[in-house]
Write a structure and sequence with these properties.
The structure is a single chain. The protein is about 10% helix and about 40% strand. It has a 4-stranded mixed β-sheet. It has a two-stranded antiparallel sheet with strand order 2-3. The protein has a two-stranded antiparallel sheet with strand order 4-5. The longest helix is centred in the first third of the chain and has 6 residues. The relative contact order is 0.32.
Length: about 70
């Protein structure tokens, strides 16, 4: 499971995200919202859907364990 990859946060917020192994990892229905500087609601990745380590915030494939770091 030592493999690390990146995924664009903007892409994850807009469309279903699947690991390279084919396992579903995240979908936009799981998005939350927050207020930006102009007090507009903007989508954010749902609470509890990411993990953190010394290298940053990531999503983990439940099947093969690959870490996808958000960029």
């Amino acid at each position: 499971m030592d493999e690390r990859k990146t995924v664009a946060c903007a892409d994850v917020l807009k469309e279903d995200f699947y690991c390279e192994c084919g396992t579903w990892v995240y979908c936009p229905d799981m998005n939350g919202t927050k207020l930006d500087d102009q007090q507009n609601e903007v989508p954010v990745i749902g609470e509890g859907c990411t993990k953190h380590d010394k290298d940053g915030e990531y999503m983990e494939c439940p099947e093969c364990g690959v870490h996808y770091y958000l960029v």
